[in-house]
Design goal:
Helix content: 40-55%
Order of helices and strands: HEEEHEEEHHHHEEEEHHHH
Number of helices: 10
Low-confidence stretches: none
CATH topology of the largest domain: Aminoglycoside 3'-phosphotransferase, Chain: A, domain 2
CATH superfamily of the largest domain: Aminoglycoside phosphotransferase (APH), C-terminal lobe
Shape: globular
Strand order of the largest sheet: 1-2-3-5-4
CATH class of the largest domain: Alpha Beta
CATH architecture of the largest domain: Alpha-Beta Complex
Radius of gyration: 20 Å
Length: about 350
């Protein structure tokens, strides 16, 4: 039995002990925790409790962070999810936060489980089956771009000041989600892992940083179809509200992140089909951009900057976990460390800036 399997086997009793001690001593399991196949930064489990009322009686999700993660991060993500849900955006409300690592090995949040499954799920996993790709092309080209554009425009229309007040009420500094903080975390990552091949690229981001608009928006930072839950073609909600990605900033950030991800990210298909897949991805990116611009205004030059920022952000995140394996959520290499994606982001940034981001060996 590997370490991951051992941890999963111990989780159920530990979680129930915690729930009985901190929420309700009468709690039992109707469904013991079972891990989702997805989850890059965290371990994510579905479970259901019995003997409780209210929100705790519904299907639930456990989002468990690594032991190196601070409890503050769990509180930030929980606060954002609940705040946007309260403003009418489809996100799961958090029902409990534990900032301590001792009970389960890392901080965690418990939230409502959204009904349904991941949008275009077969295309979100490494090793895409070509038959799945062919079967899902109509939905990929016709439905996905406007759906993601709708969700982003809806999110960006929310009042960011409401979120700032919610963060302050939770004893959190709202500047933790500013572009300054985001760049600072990126800089710390590059220096912590000694990623010398990223220094020039990060300096380019500093020099070319655009002015922020006077009215800032709530940005998810990774809003693509892999983080959208749907049920019978109806959107149930958006998941994976990561503090590493979220921003209170220019909506161009969200648009840039999604558009470059659609264009060059995750092309894990057989080598002979990569040129075709890349062509489809570029088309998807353009369709998404057009769909968003029909719904909301955004500075296109700023979008181009944030596309480049996403390249450095994504690649440095993957590179850090190559250099420091203790940061990996799972025993194996992270699912984002895909040759097609790393090469795609590297080429995009080089074509845009003339700078090559040197990745450490896998």
């Amino acid at each position: 039995m590997n370490a991951d399997a051992a941890l999963d086997g111990d989780l159920g009793p530990k979680l129930l002990t915690y729930v009985q001690a901190h929420i309700d001593g009468a709690a039992t399991y109707v469904q013991a925790p079972s891990r989702f196949t997805s989850g890059v930064e965290t371990r994510v489990y579905a479970f259901r409790l019995g003997g409780l009322r209210g929100a705790f009686s519904s299907p639930l999700v456990l989002r468990l962070f690594g032991g190196h993660v601070t409890g503050e991060r769990a509180r930030v993500e929980a606060t954002v999810q609940t705040a946007v849900a309260d403003m009418g955006f489809p996100a799961a409300r958090v029902v409990h936060v534990c900032e301590a690592a001792a009970p389960l090995g890392g901080p965690f949040i418990i939230m409502e489980r959204l009904p349904g499954s991941v949008m275009l799920a077969p295309l979100t996993r490494p090793g895409t089956n070509i038959l799945d790709l062919i079967r899902l092309v109509p939905s990929l080209l016709l439905r996905m771009p406007p759906v993601i554009a709708d969700l982003q425009a809806q999110l960006h229309s929310l009042d960011a000041n409401v979120l700032k007040h919610a963060l302050e009420a939770a004893a959190l500094d709202s500047s933790i989600l500013s572009l300054d903080s985001h760049l600072e975390r990126m800089s710390e990552r590059i220096h912590r892992a000694h990623l010398g091949g990223f220094v020039d690229g990060f300096q380019w981001l500093r020099i070319h940083r655009p002015a922020e608009p006077s009215c800032l928006a709530i940005c998810h930072g990774d809003l693509w179809f892999g983080n959208v839950i749907q049920r019978r073609l109806r959107i149930a909600g958006v998941v994976d509200w990561s503090m590493d990605a979220m921003l209170i900033g220019d909506p161009a950030y969200d648009v840039g992140v999604t558009s470059v991800g659609l264009a060059v990210g995750g092309a894990d298909v057989p080598f002979p089909l990569r040129p075709i897949a890349r062509g489809v991805q570029i088309l998807l990116s353009r369709l998404f951009l057009r769909a968003y611009l029909r719904r909301a205004r955004v500075d296109v030059s700023a979008v181009r900057y944030y596309q480049s920022l996403r390249c450095v952000d994504f690649l440095s995140w993957v590179a850090e976990r190559r250099v420091l394996p203790s940061l990996r959520t799972h025993g194996e290499r992270d699912m984002l460390d895909i040759k097609g994606a790393t090469e795609g982001f590297t080429s995009f940034f080089r074509d845009r800036t003339g700078i090559t981001l040197a990745m450490p060996r896998a």
